[in-house]
Design brief:
This protein has 7 helices and 5 strands. The protein is α/β, with parallel strands linked by helices. The mean pLDDT is 88. The structure holds S-adenosylmethionine (SAM).
Length: 170
């Protein structure tokens, strides 16, 4: 079995910045924003992105959320130092959003904020099987009463493998 660190250390070797040019995940980010996030009622919103990579989803949230929400909190974790640093060098308009990021794995991250949404976009297969129960519990503990977990996977078979059932996170 691979070390748990392998799952993020591999990203220190990847030229992940190309994602900025290819905009490869923009369709899915846009889908989440338009069809799920914009449906949240009220003028406050809090989102935590697990494994935010180089932060392109954050950039899209920063651009789109102020159309509907006044009080915006974004938090997220990214354990790969290379990805994390790459995101840090980007300018988000911090007058529009409150931002807090952690250069840590999800299980190492500590925050007391309760979120409306937790997102895991192409990250879940990076959790080792013996971490999954802890990850599910942590996700549940970080959501507020109406909160939703948004899981994006590249291959549906992964869901069968980890036996995710409806209601697992509530
Ligand atoms: C395929 S990338 C997806 C990045 C981003 N979510 C996106 O949409 O572009 C997977 C990311 O998960 C991160 N990752 C790996 N293990 C992790 C862990 N235990 N906790 C949080 N993130 C992790 C990696 O460092 C990498 O940035």
């Amino acid at each position: 079995m691979k070390n748990k660190e392998f799952f993020y250390l591999q990203y220190d070797k990847v030229n992940w910045q190309n994602q900025e040019k290819t905009k490869i995940n923009s369709f899915i980010y846009n889908f989440i924003i338009q069809n799920i996030v914009f449906k949240k009622k009220g003028d406050k919103i809090k989102i935590f992105d697990i494994g935010f990579g180089i932060g392109i989803f954050f950039q899209m949230l920063e651009k789109n959320l102020p159309k509907f929400f006044k009080n915006i909190t974004l938090e997220g974790c990214e354990p790969s130092y290379k990805n994390y640093k790459n995101f840090q060098s980007k300018l988000l308009n911090l007058k529009k959003v409150k931002l807090r990021t952690f250069n840590k794995t999800f299980l190492q991250t500590e925050t007391n904020t309760k979120f409306d949404f937790l997102t895991s976009i192409y990250v879940s297969p990076h959790f080792a099987f013996d971490e999954l129960k802890g990850v599910a519990k942590k996700i549940s503990s970080m959501l507020n009463n109406e909160g939703k977990f948004i899981l994006v996977v590249a291959n549906e078979k992964y869901l069968e493998k980890i036996k995710i059932k409806k209601g697992t996170f509530h």
